[in-house]
Amino acid sequence: MAAMERILDVKNLEIDFKTYAGTVHAIRDVDFHLNKGETLAIVGESGSGKSVTVRTLMGLLASNAKIVGGSVDFEGKDIVQMSEKELTHLRGNDIAMIFQDPMTSLDPTMTIGKQVAEPLRLHTKISEKAALAEAVRVLELVGITNAKARLKDYPHQFSGGQRQRIVIAIAIINNPKILIADEPTTALDVTIQAQILELLKEVQEKIDTSIIFITHDLGVVAGIADRVAVMYAGKIIEYGQVDEIFYNAQHPYTWGLLEAMPTLETKSDRLYAIPGTPPNLINPPAGDAFAARNEFALAIDLQQEPPFFQVSPTHAAATWLLDPQAPKVTLPPEIQRRHQIWEEKFANKGVNA
Questions:
Q1: What topology in the membrane does the UniProt record assign (predicted)?
Q2: Tens digits of residue pLDDT in 252-306
Q3: Strand ranges of the sheet holding 95-98, from the earlier edge strand across to the other edge
Q4: 0.90 cut: is pTM over it?
Q5: Distance CA 45, CA 278 (A)
């Protein structure tokens, strides 16, 4: 299969935050890419650096943040080096974002029609009448019924699920090349979550966009992602095709995330919880950042950071357990079950590059 066209390439990204307690090394040498038309999920606990990473793509970092190194290549231009004027043109136009909480990302004093039409009017010379007509079309696309009659309604007149649909409409009105969804279903109940995920897939097909989907919930990822990158303590520690991560995970942190996810096969009364807390990134640990919480940690994990070991052409994990000299470990039962499924269903079929 021919290599897919890359629309975004992030290389060696490093971001520090200046705080009263000291310098927090929030993003530590992050590399990933996004292919045209695909959905990449970035998964990890709160504080792992997911949101900071994607906010860099929009030039939306906090005032105390500093990009120490790296590049973010989008269509031949480095976003890190862009001026504020160039970033203003980029935001909401080529790259758009769906934020976590629709209630705080919508203006309570402004009608929905104006809010949806605003990005279009900012980036084009379209008239207000034409912009509102386009707003109706996009609102109908995201499933707001009787959209024309509701243009003059305010955010509080809509339900939580409808508000998230409106936020998606604002993000897609300019047909962005990249859509960033930052935990878009966290504030919603499970049935509405499923509807919003389905909507994102429909929207992706209709406007031919690429999606970066940020979440702490691996369960949400299965139905939407093509590839998955797992983040921990400001680093990507494993990446692969969605089936490779779900059924052939190699990093103990990814194992912990999978064990913590309830499935129909879950037999235990209590769900697994990864012990301990993430490290202090003012003084990051010398070796593997997950070592202190990892029951499978080797002596080398405390001294030396593991490189990425290639599992397949599309799958790699940064864990010393993949080193040829590492001892074989007994996998947790849930991971054994998943690896068995991998052997039976996927191992000989391969996955798309």
A1: Peripheral membrane protein
A2: 999 999 998 877 676 667 778 899 999 999 999 999 999 999 999 999 999 999 9
A3: 95-98, 178-182, 210-215, 39-43, 227-232, 235-241, 315-317, 309-312
A4: yes
A5: 9
